[in-house]
Amino acid sequence: MSSDRFARVQEILLRSIDLPEEERVAYLSRECRGDPELRAEVESLLAHEGTPTEMLGGEAGQSGETQQAIRSSGILDRSFSHYRILSKIGSGGMGEVYLAQDERLEREVALKILRAGILADDAARKRFRKEALALSKLNHPNIATIYDFDTQEGMDFLVMEHVAGETLNEKLSAGPMPEREIARLGLQMAEGLVAAHGQGIIHRDLKPGNVRLTSDGRLKLLDFGLAKLVRQPGDASTTETLTEAHGLVGTLPYMAPEQLRGETVDARTDIWAAGVVLYEMATGRKAFPEADSARLITAILSGPPSMPSAVHRRVSPALESIIVKCLEKDPERRYQSAKELAVDLRRLETPSIVGVVRPAPQEGRQRWIVTGVASSVVALVALGFALNVGGLRERLFSSVPRIRSLAVLPLKNLSGDSTQEYFSDGMTDAVINDLCKVAALRVISTTSVMQYKETHKSLTAIARELGVDAVVEGSVLRSGGRVRINAELIQPGKERQLWAASYEREMKDVLTLQNEVAGTIAGAVRTRLTPEDRTRLASARTVNPEAYEEYLLGQHPETTTAGAQNWERVKAHYLRAIEIDPEFALAYAALGNTYADMTLYSKLPPFEAAPLGLEAATKAVQLDGDLAEAYASLANVKLQLMWDWPGAEAALKRALELNPNSTGVRTIYRFFLTCMGRHEEAVAVSVSLLQDQPNSDRFMFAWDLFYARRYDEAITELKKCLQSDPKAGSMRAWLAYSYAVKGMRAQALAECDTLEAHPDWKDPFWECMLGEVYAVSGVRGKALDVLERMRAQEKHGYVDPAEYAYVYAALGDKDQAFAALGKAIDVRSANVLQMDIEPVFDGLRSDPRFGELLHRMNLPMRKP
User: Fold this and answer.
1) For residue 787, which phi and psi values (nearest 5 degrees)?
2) Contact, 108 vs 102, CB < 8 A?
3) Angle at 360 between CA 358 and CA 363, to 5 degrees
4) Over 814-829, what HEC string results?
5) pLDDT tens-digit readout, 754-784
6) b/e string for 784-803 if b means 16 or more Cβ within 10 A?
7) In principle, which of 138, 609, 650, 818 could form an S-S bond with 595, CB 3.0–4.6 Å?
8) How many other C-beta atoms lie within 10 A of the C-beta of residue 848?
9) Cβ contacts of 791 within 8 Å, gap of 6 or more
10) Which residue stretches of 96-176 are H helix?
């Protein structure tokens, strides 16, 4: 049957199943007009069984023909060949199953009498025997063996190993199973699949009813490969072999998308079914619980199942990751072999590999928090925490110690796809940024926590290094059009889980999801929230999923690595996000920052960047007046490109009102304070940033100390920077410059020699700093050589005039220095922002031309 024909039969079948008889006849007459064969195929399927699940091979009651055969023959205590029937075990889509005694080998067996009509003729029976013989060669401890196939008095029967015990179906009636047991039994299931797939045999109908558990804890897969042998009613072909697909075979809730589409199936189809079985073991309910057949098929083909941990809170991220990978719609994204699945299940089962199993959340009043946080309820709970309605937070978390500092460790990517790391990293950064809105809570920056992305350090060690009271661990999974975040709050030292929750939203609501996670964490740590905190945490926005993905790609470090070409990629991602969603304020804010930064790092002329950056940042503020990132972007543009100092400060203050602990906002603020000559304030902000960024780059702190003329301290900090990154050319250039202005000529020139020996460490701006150092240190010839190299660079691209000004000022050539500064101000170079505090310009300050230049920059004349 062709795929188009298959789809047409399936469509008519599903629409006609539940119609009353008269309506069904009319419907079939209308839909099958002019195609009697199509009508015959559908009617044959409709007559096959009583329900769609049974029709598709599910466990069912007996067909009328089988019931009649049993009634007329008095089958109990009767013998088929040398097998004597003892009792009935059950029934299924293929027929009735009986316990029988093999009187030759004196053992109990399971004898399955096939439903009448499954094997249409002797040719089909012959093919079935051949396939059954192949299946009988499967010999594995986790597979029930087929012993024999025969026919007696027109009744076809299979003889199989009898496995005493209960079916997995029966066991699941008691609810979800413990994870250790899931891992143990799941591993046995996977190992059975490995053995069968190695022989080229696919089960095709793996489900809890086909899994039996023995009293000694072994798992046996039943009916292995039999679904493939069933000749579908209405299939009159005599040329196909039974090893080829014959339409729908399997049990609907466990069928993979490719099965429902009538496509070729392979081992990965069994892996899907294994995932559905694991889902049911972990949660106690089906992955796709829809009762209506049409809706069930639609859900399997296109809808993501609810995340297991949303259904049952004790499902660990590791088990959830395994299940989700099995249930990828595209077979290419699933485990590619049962052996891969077995490896992950074995890792889950083995404590020494899995690591410490965290204790479950406390019972009683906390339990409903965890189980209640799902879909729309999570918004109410998060808001309740944030607003502390009726003292809710204190009552619910009375056993949780007050936490004043927190680190959100990188959320684990559960997709199994390493190319999705940008998404999980973006979620981490977003949650951290939202938590920073709580003024009383110290939150470690993204830069610092990302160092622990692949670490094997204990949580206690991490907390000690970061200086925090607690850590948040979690995972993120994007599946279809939904996003899920699991999070748990852990007290270091005791490694005690204080709180855990799961959140799931549609992708368009991902920004709301991030707010909810942050709001609930803020409540869990018993932070006293001000009215302003509550307002900030209650914000909710929607976003186009594709636009948000482009935004995250622009934010990711792999995109934003140094280099003009990469900055063009960053800009392209933000422009694409805005094209997709013209109302996306975050993307406009990021674009404004990008134009400002490109003047420093990719040589975009400031006079070109200024109007573009101002337009983007202004649009961000217009779209969302409560977005700290929008005001920070506006401040950055006004500071670096417009020299609107009062406007920049006003925007920064508004950004800090909206997110007082934002690392990004405070970084711009300390830069503004330094440029304004407010050095002690700038250093104080830098110190606060270092508290939130332990073990991070201390370069900006050194930069603020340098311009505060605290050279010894700046040198100490720069040396620390070079200890962690000896190849950092920018830090080495600043160290050389610090030595030079302090009069430490030998040390300054030694650093210059190191940079000259490694030209790949330098960029054009640090080249000009070499010229300054040579000039200040009295090596005039080398300073002039640097100027020549800079002129040569102009042939290949833009060189900032301010870079010439620094070298000429250091050489004492005032006229050339003022000329270069004038040009730099004409193009609004960001490299003259600190002109009034720059030590190398001290020799120019007494000249009236210097005051005129400051006036052009909207700056008053003042002492450094």
Assistant:
1) -60, -40
2) yes
3) 155
4) HHHHHHHHHHHHHCCC
5) 988 887 766 656 778 899 999 999 999 999 9
6) eebbeebeeeeeeebbbbbb
7) 609
8) 7
9) 799
10) 122-136, 168-172
Report d(CA 112, CA 122) in Å as an integer: 19
H/E stretch holding 198 reads helix 179-198
Of 185, 190, 191, whose CA–CA distance to 172 is shortest?
185
Asked whether 670 and 704 are in contact (CB, 8 A), the reply is yes
Which pair of structure tokens corresponds to residue 644?
């609107």
Residue % of the chain over a pLDDT of 70: 78
CA torsion through residues 106, 112, 117, 122, sign: negative
Instruction: Name the average pLDDT for the chain.
Output: 80
Other CB atoms within 10 A of residue 561 CB? 12
| For residue 497, pLDDT beyond 80 | no
Nearest CA among 413, 696, 668, 373 for reference residue 552: 413
Task: Give strand pairing partners of 79.
Answer: 84
Tokens 């990293």, located at residue? 425
Distance CA 338, CA 353 (A): 20
> Tokens representing 382?
């998060």
- Per DSSP, the three-state class of 60 is coil
* HEC letters along 605-639: CHHHHHHHHHHHHHHHHHHCCCCHHHHHHHHHHHH
Measured distance CA(510)–CA(584) in Å, rounded: 13
pTM: 0.54
**Catalytic annotation, pick one of 205, 270, 344, 800:** 205
Roughly how many angstroms between the first and final C-alpha of the chain, as a whole number?
86
Both tokens assigned to 816: 């050339």
Contacts for 124-133 with beta carbons within 8 Å, 24 or more apart? Answer: 124/231, 124/242, 125/151, 125/156, 127/241, 127/242, 128/156, 128/229, 128/242, 130/242, 131/225, 131/228, 131/229, 131/242, 131/243, 132/158, 132/229
Lowest mean per-residue pLDDT among 69-83, 303-317, 329-343 = 69-83
Plot region of 379 (φ>0 → left; ψ -120 to 50 → alpha; else → beta): alpha
Torsion of CA 475, 479, 484, 487, to 10 degrees: -10
- SS3 at position 113: strand
Distance CA 464, CA 491 (A): 12
Q: Which pLDDT score, from 0 to 100, does residue 665 have?
A: 92
What span, in angstroms and rounded, lies between the C-alpha atoms of 818 and 808? 9
Which pLDDT score, from 0 to 100, does residue 77 have?
67
Q: Residue 291 is encoded by which pair of tokens?
A: 């009762």
* SS3 call for 694: coil
> E-assigned strands of 543-588?
none
Question: Which residue type sits at 350?
Answer: T
Tokens 């077979």 correspond to what residue? 331
**Position 335: which residue type?**
Y
Rounded-to-integer distance, Cα 164 and Cα 216, Å: 10
